[in-house]
Amino acid sequence: MSRQAPAAVRASANVVGVVVFLLAAFPVYWMVNSSFLDRNEIRNPVPTWVPFGGDLDNFRTVFATDQFVNALRVSLMVTGLTIVVALAFAFVAAVAVSRFRFRGRMSFVVALLVIQMIPVEGLFISQYKMLEAAELLNTVLGLTLVYVANVLPFTIWTLRGFVAGVPYELEEAAMIDGCSRVQAFFRVTLPLLAPGLVATGVFGFIQAWNEFTLALVVMTREDQRTLPLWLSTFTDVNRGTDWGGIMAGSTLIAVPVIIFFLVVQGRMVSGLTTGAVKG
Amino acid sequence: MSESARRGRSTPLPYALVLPATLALALALGYPLVRQVVLSFQDSGLAQQFGRPPEWVGLQNYRDLLGDAYLWRVTARSIVFCLVNAAVTMVLGVGLALLMRHMARGVRLLVQTGLLLAWAMPVVASLTVWQWLFDTQYGVVNYLLTQLGLDYAGHPWLLRPLSFFFVATVIVVWMSVPFVAFTVYAALTQLPEELLEAAEMDGAGARSRFRHVVLPTIRPVLLVVGLLQVIWDLRVFTQVFVLQQGGGSARDTNLLGTYIYRLGIGGGEFGMSAAVAMFMLALTVVLTAPYVRTMLKQEADT
User: Fold this and answer.
1) Which of A55, A251, A254, B269 lies 20 to 30 A from A161 at CA?
2) Where is the ABC transmembrane type-1 domain (chain B) (predicted)?
3) Nearest CB partner across the interface for A5, out of B17, B102, B247
4) pLDDT tens digits for A132-169?
5) What is the ipTM of this complex?
6) Looking at beta carbons, which residues of chain A come within 8 Å of B89?
């Protein structure tokens, strides 16, 4: 990057850069902007570009609806349960894959990669039938089951990289100093893995919090909707759409995700294109 | 690693450690897969919803599907949509990554901030915003186009299939470019600077430097990223489904995913929809094979 391109190239690159920034960021800005506007400003033929004089009425309306509060409750339960179960299962599996060489290890890794690519649309019909037969449709447990399976492959794959990043020699040193193997693992390796576990957990949160398709299939009853389902039913052609309210709802759902995403982004991107984090 | 590897060979411990994950995957994905194969050979429609046991019909569902012009239309539509979206995303993402190297520091930071915001947006939230932007009556897009002197006042974007897919493509591309741009840009920062200088001193022009130095360095990343785009864009569901609810005609805009949903869960034709799902799975597996091979090669190299 030290070499200088011709001035004309640099100037046009900068212009393109500013345009790309505007195109990429504008919808996010517009969501937040509109969430502060009242009905008259929303329905003004000339858009209100900056929310001067805006207020929090839309947010108040959203919080006052039972459907939102209920969806928030369902979303929090499913997301929380999914993260806990997926992290626990993925963690032990990641230790096995990166600390042991055993027969079937390679098939396990290949299976993870293949499963990660399976489209949910390819299986949701029979998942629906299975959950229906087990009477788990419209239950937090049922949705959690399919969510766990959904995030497990990527979670194991990523954690595997983090575990491999902690040198085994550290554990050995602790064992020489008198720790048992289990003690060495919990006292030396686990603390070093904490950032990796947090990053992976946040990724699982984003996945489960945003997921739409499986929620649509499993949660058919209105009182069991998750937040994305609640939000999608807002834009019904048959009703006059309350864009201010929708944007307030979207902002509420998006802000935690955007914050979390910015925190873990750097750690997670590499996971898809390389053998995750190399030690 | 090698030390622990030797240790691990004789113990059942690693198997106990992968057991919970394996069981969860087998229960939530493996069992449904087997069930789906069976289902795709059965006549399981509305009559079965009312208690009649499913009838074994062999390949009838598949035969019906192969003869169904609508399925072919949906498949062709899905493939075209997938290829167009993947191609546009790749061209914009790679072009942006190349340009990012020549931007001033501040501008590059600006671009990265914008891309991160677009990338971080939850899909349903971004769908509602884009629907609001493209809204017929009060949308910003119609307003701006009208200000430019075009006749777009009250233009209904979702009504006609072609314009419906234009909106869907804008949304999918907007969401997908950040991943491509960031990944390719990261690969570009690995470029051997000396090699570029040497090529320049030897009189290689910008184009030939790109072809002989830049491209070979980023080719593996381009392949994986491109493949991922194709796989992901083949299964676009949420965007199309939500836009259909927002006013598009489902029949004229169904892709494979929404078709399976509407056939099975919407219409109760579980046998038929299971067969379409098997078809979609097969398509994905074919596309995934080279991805898995590349990832495993990288794994072996590390």
Assistant:
1) A254
2) 75-291
3) B102
4) 999 999 999 999 999 999 999 999 998 998 888 888 88
5) 0.89
6) none
